[in-house]
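Why should sequence recovery work at all? Because a backbone constrains its sequence more than one might expect. Tight turns favour small or flexible residues, buried strands favour hydrophobic ones, and helices have their own preferences. The token representation captures these environments compactly. In the example below, the structure is given first.
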């Protein structure tokens, strides 16, 4: 197992390097960089991206005609543009900038945001609790619902209960998370029907003045809809995984032997089958968490106005805040690769019979 872990760790750096190279290369061809953003703001044009959707054709043509490097820079002194380039590091060739960025990352220096005057690390620390809250609660609730439901479906396999719950699960899996989130807002957050839950944020404005039990209630009250919206797809997948795992175990010989010895169905189910069937479900917890953490954070945080990492990444991409984009991309990529290794270790921990080295051979 040690050799397998070393091989996986050895692949982390090349994988991260490939991710960074691809994304850095793509940004060289995407219009509307940070300098263009500032030029647009200085000239009162608002968002520079409007110039690439049909609204800024005249400014772009004027920029080209005047020989400027940046669309819409006509009328601005060259010294101002040069100062911006030097401040953002764009006075260096792309290859040199990429090498300098990697060298800084090796020293855990992710730089400062272009437009927030805050270090990327501080931004990530500030936004991380919101995303972890959504990911952790969604994963826990998905497990608490999926395991009992999956076991019940396995025991009642082929019954009417199994049929109608399967239909419900398929519908839940087919509903896009963002559409379900909007539906929850419209129905339960004052959209058109009921105003039972708050529209935005993780806490109320008077959170500091509340007692400890009121703070707990206020916190749960605020996260109810976002967590429910981000749980729906994970719940469907885990339920079917639990059911199939139990069905595989129920058909094995040791179950028939336990029944032949006169053990009760409950003893067979929870004393023998449960322990073996849950191995793959429990071992997959890190992977499920990171999947919910990454896939649902952007949409859910944006819809419910939660200030988390997903929303931070979206705003950084719109503003072309490259230090935030590449810094969060590096951190997320490293986190995802490490969690993948931890998931494999979890499988071996809960079931020592699993041997990844022999499978690779």
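From this structural description, the recovered sequence reads:
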């Amino acid at each position: 197992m040690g050799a397998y872990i070393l091989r996986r760790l050895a692949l982390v750096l090349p994988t991260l390097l490939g991710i960074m190279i691809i994304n850095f290369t793509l940004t060289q061809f995407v219009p509307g960089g940070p300098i263009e953003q500032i030029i647009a703001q200085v000239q009162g044009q608002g968002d520079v991206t409007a110039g690439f959707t049909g609204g800024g054709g005249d400014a772009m043509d004027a920029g080209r005609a005047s020989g400027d490097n940046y669309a819409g820079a006509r009328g601005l002194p060259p010294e101002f543009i040069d100062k911006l380039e030097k401040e953002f590091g764009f006075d260096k060739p792309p290859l040199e900038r990429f090498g300098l960025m990697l060298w800084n990352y090796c020293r855990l220096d992710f730089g400062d945001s272009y437009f927030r005057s805050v270090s990327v690390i501080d931004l990530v620390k500030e936004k991380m609790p919101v995303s972890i809250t959504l990911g952790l609660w969604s994963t826990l609730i998905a497990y608490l619902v999926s395991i009992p439901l999956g076991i019940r479906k396995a025991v009642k396999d082929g019954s009417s209960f199994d049929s109608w719950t399967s239909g419900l699960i398929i519908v839940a899996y087919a509903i896009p998370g963002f559409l379900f989130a909007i539906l929850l807002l419209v129905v339960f957050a004052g959209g058109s029907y009921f105003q039972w839950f708050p529209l935005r944020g993780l806490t109320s404005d008077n959170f500091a003045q509340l007692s400890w039990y009121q703070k707990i209630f206020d916190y749960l009250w605020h996260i109810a809809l976002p967590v429910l919206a981000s749980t729906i797809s994970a719940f469907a997948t885990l339920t079917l995984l639990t059911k199939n795992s139990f069905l595989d175990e129920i058909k094995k010989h040791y179950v028939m032997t336990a029944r032949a010895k006169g053990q009760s169905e409950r003893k067979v189910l929870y004393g023998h089958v449960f322990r073996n069937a849950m191995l793959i479900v429990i071992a997959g917890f890190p992977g499920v968490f990171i999947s919910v953490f990454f896939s649902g954070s952007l949409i859910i945080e944006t819809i419910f106005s939660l200030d988390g990492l997903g929303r931070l990444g979206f705003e950084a991409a719109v503003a072309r805040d490259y230090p935030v984009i590449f810094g969060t991309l590096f951190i997320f990529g490293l986190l995802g690769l490490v969690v993948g290794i931890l998931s494999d270790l979890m499988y071996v921990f809960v079931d020592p019979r699993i041997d990844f080295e022999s499978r690779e051979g």
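A few observations help interpret the result. DSSP finds 16 helices and no strands in the chain.
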